[in-house]
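#struct-queue
[09:14] JT: dropping the first one here, sequence first, then the structure tokens:
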Amino acid sequence: MEQRLAGKVAIVTGAGQGIGKGIALRLGGQGADVVVAEYNPESAATTVQEIEALDCRALAYLIDVADVTAVRKMVGDVVAKFGHIDILVNNAGVVQIKPMMELTEEEWDRIININQRGLFFCLQAVAEQMIRQVPATVKDACRTPHSFGKIVNISSVAGRSGRSLATHYAASKAAVLSITKSAALALAPYYINVNAVCPGVVPTPMWEEIDQTRTQMEGLQPGESIRQLIESIPLKRAATPEDIAAAVAFLVSPDSDCITGQALNVDGGLEMD
């Protein structure tokens, strides 16, 4: 794989499995040093081992992204080890399938604290470091040949149109799209690009959890809810973690230096907006 990210340091949150792991492996394969920011120590270690097998450096960093103090400490620790941060992929997230009228305050707060609040404060802490890295001589965007930081937030097609069985999750992912636009405006003067990727159906442990819950709620056969969704996709296939990782790799590459504040659906045409 072409080493387009050689010399870059990337933090990928929630990189122990699924989409996050796919992204971490892709960035590592392109030469980046990857910080696997993950809550689960076993899955974090596995991802690190697979990145190191690509002859790239990786660091497992155990963290709860909802803990703002821990997030700020992580940024300091990463800079102390690697010297800089060039890429942040805000991927960590959780989901719950439950009818809107049955949601509790605790369930709402859990989803929002990780998917929305945690994402924002990760972005803020890393952006502060990226701003410090911008050369003092850079003053005119017209004379700036490249970006000084890339941030990609993982949203969801659920944030595009809402979900009656996951109101809190859809709300958190809609907020990610708004945060992305606001951050893109706020960080543009520093030539830091902020974009989002919206996955659709991606068979991962999270989607297995969704399928199990819907199987119980709706009396479906195992796997039936995912098969039904795939039938509604114009391309008639689910996305893979590698599909999402390819989109992220583009958005953190030099090819995207003039792209910011955008949200890219990677869903086989499920959403076209």
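[09:21] JT: and here's the second one, same format:
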Amino acid sequence: MTNQIALITGASRGLGRNMALHLTKRGVHIIGTYRSGAAEAEALKQEIEAQGGKATMLALDVTNTKSFQAFASAVTDTLKAGFGRERFDFLVNNAGNGIAANFVDATEDQFDSLVTTHLRGPIFLTQKLLPLIEDGGRILNVSSGFVRFTLPGYSIYAAMKAAVEVLTRFMAVEFGPRKIRVNAIAPGAIATDFGGGAVRDNGDVNAYVAQGIALGRVGLPDDIGGAVAAILSDDMGWANGTTFDISGGQLL
């Protein structure tokens, strides 16, 4: 992968940041988005450039669908001015939020936040960006291991991610004439700041989760970033319409 461009939503922190760095190692340039972490986004940009890559960071709130047309225009301008291109190669719908609430306690506001962030946003953002994706490009959606296994408190979140997996298959079929491959990843427990960072920062939680993983440890951001770079590579060019479980064998 050389001189290709990936657009990653939520790239300023967490898994999105790690994805960007792994793609940079493979020669892929980055257009990343951030919601409020402008300083974190700038730090990532500098780190990518220090490694010889190109990067531009753009502000985007994936819950504000009315801003998507203006964002697509900003991407068009960025492609021309920063990369000498009219289109980009890879779209990674990564931006998300985590809200834990038992089913009986879940509120409509929590539901609205999750459905807007994880479903409505990616659907209509992808719609707006499709004309800017190269024929033969790739789209990667982010699901969750919670679609396969359960944990009290994540029913609504998991339902959104299940919808993402179904959506991925339909997108793969509909975008097939343009040879755009669409897949998803379903990470297991990863040591990040997701959900308040309990898996990363609480030793007891970390150990409890690890005992349910076949490989005996929780995942690290590099486990996901490396997998994403591999899935987007030509080596995985025949994978289409599927969800990759990247959990180390969690709760098998």
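[09:30] RK: nice, looked through the second one.
[09:31] RK: The mean pLDDT is 97.
[09:31] JT: good to know. DSSP finds eight helices and seven strands in the chain.
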